[in-house]
């Protein structure tokens, strides 16, 4: 018996490490792209800038080669994304803000992907101060504040008694602002800064330096996604966070 154990010992020494390094089984998770948010998903962007959230998704696939995301040929508005998650018709979505209402309908992987700052954009010649929600609410009684349709930002303003006008995109909002149809846009710095640069409006509008609120974007999960799938995503995202890749990708789009 001792002789047999001695013979098996070298064999186990080679088999066990191989088993430990065996790749995780293939896993496909359903998702979609969000339309109207080019910082997140830019179907017409260059291969080097396809959108921050799509790049994070691809980075997850790279660190976990057995993990793949399907459904990226679909581009749907944010409201539709929320319905798909709530109804369990997609498994995951990159990237979404957290709110109590949303957390009652689905879950989140607890690794922040990047942080957005809520800022106000005004015309360059408008010298009024809009640095608090109280000041924004007062200004909105003359002209509603523009905010992206169906977002948590819109609900935040409504709760603060700010009169709002919801629009489909930052570009539409900037056009309305420069034409005088509105006096302020409330939105995410990373989105608004990109649109100001791309539309060459830096001499006509100014992005406020004051941050009304800061909050991270996360990966959202359907409520009944198996815990093993969530753990696999969690480990991939932790590796990207630890290696600094999440920060590098966010910096690329600022």
TrEMBL record:
Record key words, sorted: Signal
SUPFAM superfamilies per record: Periplasmic binding protein-like II
Family annotation (InterPro entries): Solute-binding_3/MltF_N (IPR001638)
Record bears the keyword Transmembrane helix: no
The organism of origin for this protein: Pelomonas baiyunensis
Protein name: Substrate-binding periplasmic protein
Every Solute-binding protein family 3/N-terminal domain range: 32-254
Top-level taxon of the source organism: Bacteria
Signal sequence, renumbered to the chain: 1-20
Membrane-spanning residues: none
Lipid biosynthesis in keyword set: no
């Amino acid at each position: 018996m001792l002789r047999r154990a001695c013979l098996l010992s070298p064999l186990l020494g080679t088999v066990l490490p191989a088993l430990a390094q065996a790749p995780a089984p293939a896993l496909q998770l359903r998702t979609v792209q969000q339309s109207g948010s080019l910082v997140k998903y830019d179907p017409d962007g260059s291969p080097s800038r396809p959108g921050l959230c799509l790049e994070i998704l691809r980075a997850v696939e790279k660190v976990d080669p057995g993990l793949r995301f399907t459904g990226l040929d679909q581009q749907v508005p944010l409201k539709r994304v929320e319905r798909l998650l709530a109804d369990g018709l997609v498994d995951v979505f990159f990237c979404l803000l957290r709110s109590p209402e949303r957390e009652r309908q689905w879950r989140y992987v607890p690794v922040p992907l990047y942080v957005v700052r809520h800022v106000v954009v005004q015309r360059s010649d408008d010298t009024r101060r809009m640095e608090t929600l109280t000041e924004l609410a007062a200004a909105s009684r003359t002209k509603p504040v523009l905010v992206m349709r169906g977002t948590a930002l819109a609900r935040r303003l409504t709760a603060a008694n700010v009169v709002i006008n919801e629009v489909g995109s930052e570009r539409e909002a900037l056009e309305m602002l420069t034409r005088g149809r509105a006096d302020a846009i409330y939105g995410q710095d990373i989105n608004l800064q990109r649109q100001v640069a791309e539309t060459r409006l830096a001499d006509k509008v100014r992005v406020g330096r004051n941050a009304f609120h800061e909050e991270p974007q996360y990966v959202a999960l359907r409520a009944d996604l198996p815990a093993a799938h969530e753990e696999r995503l969690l480990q991939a995202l932790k590796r990207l966070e630890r290696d600094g890749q999440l920060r590098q990708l966010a910096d690329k789009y600022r």
